[in-house]
């Protein structure tokens, strides 16, 4: 079926079941950002492949609500699908609920699949629509009967990481979790989010592209820990290791029935943003439910000493791969054809040469000239441009290593750069340096670092539409909560041990885009009469293109930081490069 035919078929089922509006979120039963193929429902229904978007379908309108990162992509992919792009004003906000409230009559019925909808979203819809006399149904799956040859659940192997990598055993992590449950007077905790499960049970897999996680659920009580998983994915020695840590294994499909049988439990903790409505709905009414962020989300955000040391070493591996890549690119462009789409493959090859490399941490963004203005651009055989020795190239990429996760963006000059491009680039660099060198009191929130980073751009009446930074996992998801550096008033203090990106940008649609990104580690700085202060240690090791820098827009402190950073990059990477590569990097990192 075409996407228009699929839309017509969905509307046909809606009419049969007397549904006035049907919502399809980009999600799965674990409320994941990146999805197994089986749950790419938005892409199947509409053709839109971005990682964030929600479809809302009525009898006479079908829309995709998504944010500014995907406006251009959505416009192209929705052409001829029957769906219209609706631009979100606030990233991730369920603004389609407001639209439904304004456009549906009293006694209308709004439905969604509870397997794909978080508890928080289900509650938001109910709170918005039910007072208006609109019925909300959370148990309606219209896609399964229409989606022929729907992909099965992934069956790739999973494995348990050794303590030498994780720095903490599953047994100790379970003890910390139970202590937190006890403080909250909770005697059971249900976990759906895959990165939380991976951290807690020290387990990794490849069920989701770019994220080393395995599908599962967890149910923790004071005396028992159950991991619901496809047991065929695990080797016998991994099963034994989990059992010795006090973990029982049960079938993945049995999680819902296990919840229904928890009649002896009086209270249960769930994360409403990371638990699907269908699992929540299975919990007996007799159980008191505490809705708050999973404690493991806070635990894993603060890296232990072993994880930090591994991450520092991983940055050397990644920096070596990037140095080889950019050297090859500079020496090859203009001499032989290089397409955007081939850059990701070449960079993957350089990373694959490094020890402990597992795969990409997200799909590489290799964006030349006008494509750089699309923050989440991904080259396709149709869109892929051929590089020439002029203009700007933006490369946003990352690697998954058994010893850490990386995420880095660099913009390089391929030649014939204009003064306005230098100005924009230097202001973005200045912002990145301001954020990276911030010293701040304990208790500072991410939105405050976001403002510090944006100010050099604001001073010149420039801005960018995405957040300044996101948490990064340890050999886990490249986007990790609970903290973020963005404009939202997220009430999560920055803590020593958190790893976060700092990635200001500037985008001129139809012309070029600039983003410079490093990962930083929050560290204790100094105790003063005004309390404890924190600062950042820059982790990423890769040269920043100084050909694009306008020194007149930088203060001495910015120049000193850049020169010192480049000295560190060369010192850390040079021992792992051959003489020719060393000489090339020395030129790229020389003081300005």
Automatic annotation (TrEMBL):
A molecular function GO annotation: aminopeptidase activity
Residues annotated as domain Peptidase M24: 312-521
Keyword Hydrolase: yes
UniProt domain Peptidase M24 C-terminal: residue ranges: 532-592
One protein family per Pfam: Creatinase_N
Creatinase N-terminal domain span: 7-129
Coiled-coil parts of chain: none
Keywords (A to Z) from UniProt: Aminopeptidase, Hydrolase, Metal-binding, Protease
UniProt xrefs under InterPro entries: Creatin/AminoP/Spt16_N, Creatinase/aminopeptidase-like, Creatinase_N, Pept_M24, Pept_M24B, Peptidase_M24_C, X-Pro_aminopeptidase_P
Family stated for the protein in its record: Belongs to the peptidase M24B family.
Protein name according to UniProt: Aminopeptidase
